[in-house]
# Entry
Amino acid sequence: MTRRVAVIGGGVVGLATAWALEKSGHTCLVFEHGAPGGGQSVGESRIFRHSHDDPRQFDLALQARQDWRDWEEEFGVELISPDGAMVIGDPAVARMEKYADAPGAMFRELEPADVRKALPPLAEFEGRVLIDEAAGAIKTRLTLAILIGSIGLNLVPERVDSVNPRDGGGVDVVTSVGRRTFDAVVVAAGMGTVGLAATAGVELPVLLRAHVRITLPLRSPSPARRLACLQDSSGEFGETRGYGSPVRGNREYAVGLALNVEIDPTSAEDPLSALADRTRKYVERALPGLDSDGSQEMQAWVTELPWGADGLAVWQRGDAFFIAGHNLFKLAPALGKMLARSVDAGTVEPGFLPSDRLGEEASGTPRSASAL
Ligand SMILES: Cc1cc2nc3c(=O)[nH]c(=O)nc-3n(C[C@H](O)[C@H](O)[C@H](O)COP(=O)(O)OP(=O)(O)OC[C@H]3O[C@@H](n4cnc5c(N)ncnc54)[C@H](O)[C@@H]3O)c2cc1C
# Structure
């Protein structure tokens, strides 16, 4: 049965959901009050990785990787670079090894000479290194441009003020220009999801955090060169939560510490500047092949759930669905399909309820190893 669905939020999750809904035969409007892709999905490059602390998310990532391949075939472009993702440091290596024999996994150990070939800007590293050959850098802007083009005229540039599920079914959506009624609503509004859920009487335990990432040119750029993504839990270069991913064209590399900070508006301290300085020091030690002249800093908000850095869940009230979590880009095509199926079924797909605590970190896992 064709249903009229509103998706709120034109980030990667909302756009992927709208595309999945359209392909299932539903009609769909996407409400976006800013530039589509200008929220947490902003900026070039995100890491696609299979390795997760929660084995259920390893399976979800396998499914998502296939969904990314399907998009690549459908749109005729490469959306994930073939560079792979390299993990260094015992906690992250141990986490990845859990999945080494799983069907579909393409992990292997790298010899020191191969480490240099996989990521030339990396400093000398003595420890064990694994690479996930089917992982890589997501071409985020291309992905968003393609989805925006596909959703096209269904994008509505209005701010949604409230979402009101009706007792007898359907949902009223009140926007900056008026009220409309839909058969179902999916809220994928990033930072805006908590406030919109509250208008429907749903309380989300989202932690709003700030994040810094720095993009630097390579000292010896060579576009043909392989640049694997990096997940560094080693502590060898002074940090246990370093990450990096190539930017389209492999002339630049984006580096961050998987640390998200709370901002206290009443405090004079500037935790983001401190985190940016710490990231630059990490780059000097870990990635001497990057040139700090010409670096660009990006500050962005992220939304985490309390049970893990990769935590995600979907809440429901009547015919309204609310998704929240962090590190969702890599899973976006699979999440879009799951949300479309949830709309079809009229209920959240099993495994994604808040009580499932998807993405929960195993007890005893050092926080430093999670999300890397
Ligand atoms: C620096 C950085 C690095 C990251 N690295 C990775 C990574 O390596 N791998 C990974 O998988 N993920 C990563 N993430 C996380 C990932 O980018 C996000 O989880 C993902 O982009 C979230 O997409 P979204 O569509 O849920 O939210 P968003 O992109 O935030 O989209 C929500 C949209 O809703 C709109 N909106 C909000 N309120 C309203 C309203 N009331 N009315 C209308 N519109 C509204 C906003 O304008 C926004 O465009 C990273 C994030 C950052 C910031």
Observations:
- The longest helix spans residues 55-75.
- The first strand starts at residue 4 and ends at 8.
